[in-house]
Amino acid sequence: MPIYEYQCQKCGEMYELLRRIDEFDNPAHCEATVDCEGLGERVMSIFRTRKILSKQDQETAKFDWKDGKIVQNKKVVDEIKRQLKE
Question: Considering only 1-5, 31-35, 76-80, which range has the smallest mean pLDDT?
Fold first, then answer.
């Protein structure tokens, strides 16, 4: 069963629940605090994936087209360096 995130409509707290897929959109009783009797609404979960660029992608991504010239993309070069350090 997947874990879903909810936000209580009464107290505003966020909490997670392990629920069946067919129940994921049903309102969920607040489990963030003991005293709250509100219902939670499912919120979009945020997740991060890690993409390692291939050598060819790295070389291609290092450059941008700017003002009719090919220039080095510093942001991409810095990200590649960061990935190589991990």
Answer: 76-80
How many other C-beta atoms are found inside a 10 Å radius of the C-beta of residue 34? Answer: 7
Residue 8 scores a pLDDT above 70: yes
Q: Are 78 and 66 in contact (CB under 8 A)?
A: no
Arithmetic mean of pLDDT, 8-19: 88
pTM of the predicted model, to two decimals? 0.49
Does residue 68 come out as left (phi exceeding 0), alpha (psi in the -120 to 50 range) or beta? Answer: left
Token pair recorded at residue 74: 């510093």
Nearest Cα neighbor of 77 from 52, 65, 59, 54 is 59
DSSP assignment of the chain equals --EEEEEETTT--EEEEE--GGGTTS-EE--S-SS---EEEE---------PPPHHHHHHHTEEEETTEEEE-HHHHHHHHHHHH-
